[in-house]
Each structure stands twice: as C-alpha cells, then as structure tokens.
Amino acid sequence: MEEKLHKRAINSWAMYDWANSTFATTIMAAVLPVYYSNVAAKGLGEHTVTAYWAYTTTIALLLVAVLSPILGTMADFQGLKKRYLTFFILLGVAGTALLYFVGEGNWLMASIIFIFASIGFSGSLVFYDSLLPHVARPDEIDQVSSRGYAFGYLGGGLLLAVNLAMIMVVPKYFPTLTSSFMTRLSFLTVAVWWLGFSIPILRNVKEPPRRILAGETHETNPFTASFARLGHTFGQLKKYRQLMLFIVAFWLYNNGIGTIIYMASIYGKELKFSDVTVIGTLLMVQFVAMPFAFLFGWLARKLGTKQSIYLSLCIYTVIAIGGFFMYKEIHFWMLGFAVATVQGGSQALSRSLIGRMMPKSQSAEFYSFFGISEKIAGVIGPLVFGISSQLLGGGRVGIVSLIIFFFTGAAVLSRVDEKEGIRVAEAEEAGLMIAANG
C-alpha cells in the first residue's frame, strides 16, 4: 500500500509538468509571441517588436527573482509549500485567461498581463520543484525529474497541436471564427488545462513536515523568520560550497539555454520565416524532446549526472553557432530538432542534482535560490538579445554570443564535487531533524 501511494505521489508530481507546460509552449514559446508580433504590436517596427517582447520577458523574470527567496523561506518556515503553489497556480491561470481580451494594437496590455501570468508560472515552479526531494527517493530523483519533463513535453505538445488546429484549420471551414479569435480562445484552453491538471499534485502529494529552526517558534512572524533564515543561509554559504558552485555553473549555462527558449519564435519571425515553420518547429520539439528527456535520465545512471550535462552543453554550443548561420527555414527545423534532444535532459538533471545537494527541510528556500539563478539568466539573456537587436539591427550576434555562457558554465561545473555536496546536505538535514525533535 505504501509503495502504491509512493508511485501515485510521483506520477501526480510529474503531472504538474504536464499541466503547466502548456503555458510554456502556447503562451511563452509559440502562439503568444507570434500573436504579439502580428496583432498586439501591429504597426511597430520588426526590431522594436523583438526588443519589446524581450523587455517584457525581462521584467517578468526579474520580479520573480526578487520574490522567490522571500516566499521560499516563508513556505519552509510555515510548512505551506502546497498553499503557495496553489496561489501561484491561480495567479498564472487568471493571467493566462485574461490574454483573451488582448486585441490589435494592445501590446502594452499584452505585456502587462503576460508579466502577471509569468509570475504565476515561474513562482509555482519554485514550490513545485521544492517538493521533488520529498517525493522522490535519492536513488530515483534523476529519473523522477526526467519523468516530469517528459510529461511536460507530451502535455504541452498535445495542447499546442490542438491550439494550432484551432488557429490554422478551423477558420478555413468556419470563416466567421477568425484566426485572431481562435488564437485568443487558445489562451483560454491553456488556462483550463493548467488548472484542471494541477489537481493531482494538490490532492495526492503530501505537504512536507514543518521544521522549526533554533531560535524560532511557531508564533514567529513569517516575514521575520524569512529574512532571518535568508541571513543565516547567506552566512552559511561556505558550508554549501559545492551547491553554490553548481548554482553559479547553472546560472552561466542557463543564460544560453533560457535565451534560446524565450527568443526562438520572435527570432524566427524577424528572419521572415512562416508561422507554419516557427510554430510547427516548436510543436515538433515537444514530441521529440519527450523520449530524449527519458534518455537523459538513463544516461545519468550510465555516465553520471555531470557528464550528461556536459554532453548537452556541447550540443547547445553547436546550436548557437548554427543559429548565427541560419538563413533558410529548413535550418530552423534542424536546429529545433537539435534543441529537442537536449532541452529537457539538461534542465531535468540540473533540477535533480541541486535536489540532492540541499537539506530537504529547506528545499523551498534553496530551490528559490536555484530559481533566482534561472530567472536572472532569463533576465540577462533576453536583455542582451533585445539590446543587440536594436543596436546591431538583428539578433545574429546575440545568438552566437551564447557560446561564452556554455563554455564558462561547463568550466565552473567541472569544479563541482557532487558527492561532497550530497554528503554536506545529508549531514545538515540530520542536524535539522535532531534540533526539530529535540
């Protein structure tokens, strides 16, 4: 019975990737950027549209980076990871639904709503990720994390396929249902899908036990406890040297990964590629990425987690070089396939590796730091892309410059001793449990 409940919890946890990935595919990557370029920002210059979308993404990620550590430590202290997860799910779902009201020329409205929806999406991931070390056993964390990404690619791909049919096929048979209207309707389908498939994690994954640290009481003000814990953690960073090194490495290489994810569609539109190519490639990525996410979970057992991440960074380097020389639509399809082979694996293994090098009782706090590195990477990458697009007349220089992030990230990763990081985390968790029970 216990094993059955354990498997149910794992599948319910992974299903949240299935739920929220529709926002990543339809809203962030495929449909909204094209709608933003063609409709919401109609009349603006093509380079201006690219820059405005980059700045919108930058603001959203920056706000999450500021809020995440405070909310993460509050959730750890209060023992309310799932309640915070629920709040951000509802915020993201509501923002996504409001995109339905964005019409022609409403680029500012689209940007503001997208910012709120993105805060909901990114904020929910902090608390979703923080549940991973509590759901998965140490010997299965790589595979469980990879399963989540695989579920996400399949779920995101399926709804994106439905959305594309709504936008590109339905208007041909029902002319009164315009492509613009069906696009806005697709935003509503994402909201419904996201909310509906979030129910399993909220029902079947238990709230991890609350840990009260020395000097705290159950009546301590959550804000006071949050800042005190953050101060304590910063004061103890030397103890978590391997974890911090890995977060720096992740911050570096995820600058490149994040920029490719966020800017692929808008870059494709700048190069005058058709909607079929841009959105079709992103749809292909979802289905190709699913088996490769599982493959990287298997590779982590055979080669080791770090070595598998190295492999993904080598492939990303080739992709960045190829992006500079991309002129034909077939190149976009080829690079999209290459991205699909490594995107899920690199992120899943990064998520699971940090999960093994942190104390479970502080998972929300440490995943918030992990999230900060991810969000700051998302801030700097699109910002550099946007500035280079405006100043240099296009995004080619921005694409090829991503190589430096992959090289430096791999260099820092080579200095991470994951076994030592896991040992420190386990020892710290044992100490926290003794203090909590004593």
Number of strands: 0
Number of domains: 1
Strand content: under 5%
Give the rounded overall mean pLDDT. 82
Largest sheet: none
Shape descriptor reads globular
Can you offer a commentary on this structure?
It contains 18 helices and no strands. The protein is mainly alpha-helical and 438 residues long. It has one domain: Growth Hormone, Chain: A. Helix 2 (46-78) packs parallel to helix 4. The longest helix is centred in the N-terminal third of the chain and has 39 residues, at 2-40. The model has no long low-confidence stretch (mean pLDDT 82).
What is the strand and helix layout of this fold?
Blueprint: H1 2-40, H2 46-78, H3 81-98, H4 107-130, H5 132-135, H6 141-168, H7 170-173, H8 179-196, H9 199-204, H10 222-235, H11 241-270, H12 275-303, H13 305-324, H14 329-356, H15 363-392, H16 396-400, H17 403-413, H18 418-437
Helix pairs in contact: 1-4, 1-6, 1-8, 1-11, 1-12, 2-4, 2-10, 2-11, 2-15, 3-4, 3-8, 4-15, 6-8, 6-12, 6-14, 11-12, 11-14, 11-15, 11-17, 12-13, 12-14, 13-14, 13-17
